């Protein structure tokens, strides 16, 4: 497990330009939109996607078959990918939060800790959603076909979101007001609920990924 984590960290180091670009884009977008918290959602989402790319590197030129000649089981391999994804996303959240507070201090933007906590919670859930759906798809279909599958998944997610908004509008429910009230009434409770949703998604996804990996022919 430790060796696999070190391998993925070294892969991350080889993609340093990618992370530098994320930092600059986070700063630029946050400054232009006068919303320092934009960096949090932007950075955590992109870094969570990077976890998926490590599977492509592992599978390159039949590398997956070589990996399993080492003393690591398929379950441990899957567990390492989820662990790496969670750790890298959390580090991205911390770095993005530092950028957001730095931009806020420079531009003298006033914001509340409640706003920060709500944005951080939603960013973690979004990153969990990306990991939970993308990792099983990547393991099942591989680098090429997974792109099409992921586009379908994202399209379905957008369609569900659109239909949900339209349904609430038709029912005369102000969805934005409901969400604002949910955070304002009990921020701590909402944060815990969102984190638990993210954890539940990852646990279910992990079990699916393990089954996929155990049946996969290398």
Structure description:
The protein is mainly alpha-helical and 218 residues long. Helices cover 87% and strands 0% of the residues. The longest helix has 58 residues. It is globular, with a radius of gyration of 19 Å. The model has no long low-confidence stretch (mean pLDDT 77).
Task: Provide tags for this entry.
87% helix, mainly alpha, 218 residues
Short description:
87% of the residues lie in helices and 0% in strands.
The gyration radius over C-alpha positions equals: 19 Å
Form type: globular
Number of strands: 0
Poorly predicted ranges? none
User: Treating each run of at least 4 consecutive H or I residues as one helix, how many helices?
Assistant: 8
Topology (elements, then pairings):
Layout (H helix, E strand, L loop, with lengths): L1 H13 L1 H17 L5 H22 L3 H5 L6 H34 L5 H58 L4 H11 L1 H29 L3
Helix pairs in contact: 2-3, 2-5, 3-5, 3-6, 5-6, 5-8, 6-8, 7-8
